[in-house]
Amino acid sequence: MWPGMVRNIWINCIFLPKNTVSESKIKVGIVQKSCGHNLSENLDSAQAGIREAASKGANIVCLQELFLSRYFCFTEDYEYFRLAEKVPGNTTEQLQKLAAELNVVIVASLFEKVDAGVYFNTAAVIDADGKYLGKYRKNHIPDDPGFYEKFYFTPGDSGYRVFDTMFGTIGVLICWDQWYPEAARITSLMGAQILFYPTAIGWANTQSPDVNQEQYQAWQTIQRSHAIANGVHVVAVNRCGTEEELKFWGGSFVADPFGKVLYQAPHDNEVVQVVETDLALSDFYRVHWPFMRDRRIDTYTPLNNRYLKS
What are the φ/ψ torsions at residue 13 (nearest 5 degrees)? Predict the structure, then answer.
C-alpha cells in the first residue's frame, strides 16, 4: 500500500464519525454559461445563475472567466479594448448589491482597464455582506493560436492573493494559471482553503474526439494534482458553447483535497450546480499525507531559474 493508506482507513473508521465536522462544510456554486454578443444579457444571465445557486444553498459562487462578453482573444483587434472597465466599477457595484441581498460570496472575472494602455484580466471577490474584498490579476498570460491574450492583458502585478470571506479563506487564480503548480502552491501556502479557477478553454472545431478528451483530461488532472499536493479543494468554472472556431468544453468541476471529483458538469450545456465541500478534510489529508511537512524548501532555489540545462 501507499504510505498513509492503512492509517487513513483505520482513522476514518474509528475517529471520524460523520457528525464531527459539519460546521466546516461550505457549499460552492458553479455557474457554467455560454455568452452572446449583448453584454447586458450576459450580465443578466450571470446574475440569474448566482440567484439560482443561492436558492440551492450556495455560500460562494464562482463565474467563468470574462463572463460579460464572448471570448475576444481569437484575434488581435483594437476594438475589443472598449469592453474593459474599472474594477471596482459598475459591474462590481451591481454584484455587491446582489451578494448582500443573497448572502453569498461572488468571484467575478472581468476585463479591467487601469489607465490608458494598461489592461488586466482580473477576478474581483465580493463578500457575502456586499463588501468588495479586492482583486487578483492573472499572472500567466497565454499567447497561442486562438488565445492571443498577451495582446490584451498586462501580466498581473497583484501578486498571489487570498481573501478572507465570511465562509472561509479562498484563493483565486485564472485559467492559464491552472497549469502552474507554483501558483497553486503559493496561494495554498498563503492560507487558501479552496482554490477557484474562473476559466475559458475549449476545443478547436477541427480536432478529433480523442484529442478533445486527451486535452480535457490533462486540464482536469493538473488541477486535481494541485488539490492533492496542497490538500485543498479546487473549483474550476469554465464556459460552454461555440464561439468562432472554438467549442468551449464546459466540464466545470469540484475536487476534494485528495483529488476526488465531487462533481463534473457536462461539456455542452449550461448548468448551475451547488456542491458541498468539507474544509476539515484539508487538515485530515495534510496530517495523513504530509506533503506540506516534508517539503524541502532549502532545495528549491533552482526554481528561480527559467532553465537549468547547461
Answer: -70, -35
pLDDT tens digits for range 1-43: 555 554 454 444 434 443 333 578 999 999 999 999 999 999 9
Q: Which domains does the chain have, with CATH numbers?
A: 26-292 (3.60.110.10)
Alpha-carbon span 228 to 64, nearest angstrom: 23
Choice among 33, 62, 65, 73 that is catalytic? 65
| Residue in 35, 73, 175, 240 annotated catalytic | 175
35 annotated active-site: no
For 245, the grid coordinates are 472556431
Report pLDDT digits (tens) over 209-241. Answer: 999 999 999 999 999 999 999 999 999 999 999
User: Catalytic pick from 138, 149, 240, 243?
Assistant: 138
In the block, residue with C-alpha cell 448589491: 97
Contact 271, 248 (CB under 8 A): no
Neighbours of 144 (CB within 10 A): 10
The distance in angstroms from the start CA to the end CA of the chain is: 39
- Pairing assessment for the beta strands 118-126 and 132-137 based on DSSP bridges: antiparallel
Q: Does the annotation mark 18 as catalytic? A: no
User: Is 138 among the residues known to form the active site?
Assistant: yes
Determine the Cα–Cα distance for residues 64 and 105; give it in Å rounded to an integer: 15
